[in-house]
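Good morning N.,

You mentioned wanting to compare the apo and holo forms, so I went ahead and generated the holo version with flavin mononucleotide. This is what I fed in:
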Amino acid sequence: MSKEAQNLYPMHALLIRRWSPRAFRSDNIPEEKLRTLFEAARWSASGGNQQPWRFILGTNGDESFSKILDSLDDGNRSWAQNAPVLVLSVGKKTQNRNDRPNSSYRYDLGQAVAHLSIQATEEGLYVHQMGGFNPDLCRQAFSIPPDFDPITVFAVGFLGDPSQLEGNNRIRETEPRQRMAFDEFVFSGTFGQPSSLFP
Ligand SMILES: Cc1cc2nc3c(=O)[nH]c(=O)nc-3n(C[C@H](O)[C@H](O)[C@H](O)COP(=O)(O)O)c2cc1C
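and this is what came out, ligand included:
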C-alpha cells in the first residue's frame, strides 16, 4: 500500500510523501523535531509580514492535549486520541499596528501550516489537519482573546498501522487518494477555460 502522490509531472520528494494519516504510532516526538516544525512555520510568508499564526501545543497526557481533544468532533476524536501531539492553530484577525481587519490572516495561517507539514515529512512525521472541532470550546478552554480565532486542529506523529483503526477509518487509510484534473483548476482566457499548458 502506498499513499504517495501519483503525480503526473515531477515534484519534490517531500510533496510526494506527504499525506494525512489517521493511524499514528504512540511514540513521543523528540523535542528537537517539534522545534524544527515550528521553525518552518515561523519562516512562512505572510501579508505585510504580520505573521498572524499562533499555535497551542498539546502533548498526549497533558492538559492542553485533553482540552484540544475534547473540542474535536466524535469522528476525529476516535483516531486523534492516539496521536502523540495535537496542535490548535489560531489566527490573529487584526493588523498588528491597528485594530483594522487583516484580510489574509486565514491564508497566512494555512500557509504556515503547509510549511510545517512539509518540514514534518522531512522529519519522518505526518500531519493531519482538522476543521471538525468546536472553536468556541477552545476559545473558552484556552482564554483566547476576541481578536484571535481558532482555525484548525492538527495531529502530528509517526505513521502507525491501519489495523489500529476501525470501520470506515481503516478503509480510508488504504484507499487511493483522489485529485482534480488540471483542466478543472488551471485556466486561461476566461474563468473555467482550461489552460493549453495541460493538453
Ligand atoms: C482545513 C482542513 C480541514 C480538514 N478537516 C478534516 C477533518 O475534520 N477530519 C479529517 O479526518 N480530515 C480533515 N482534513 C484532511 C483532509 O480530508 C485531507 O487533507 C484531504 O482529504 C486530502 O488528503 P491528503 O492530505 O492525504 O492529501 C482537513 C484538511 C484541511 C486542510
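The beta strands are 53-59, 85-92, 126-130, 148-157.

Happy to go through it together on a call whenever suits you.

Best,
F.
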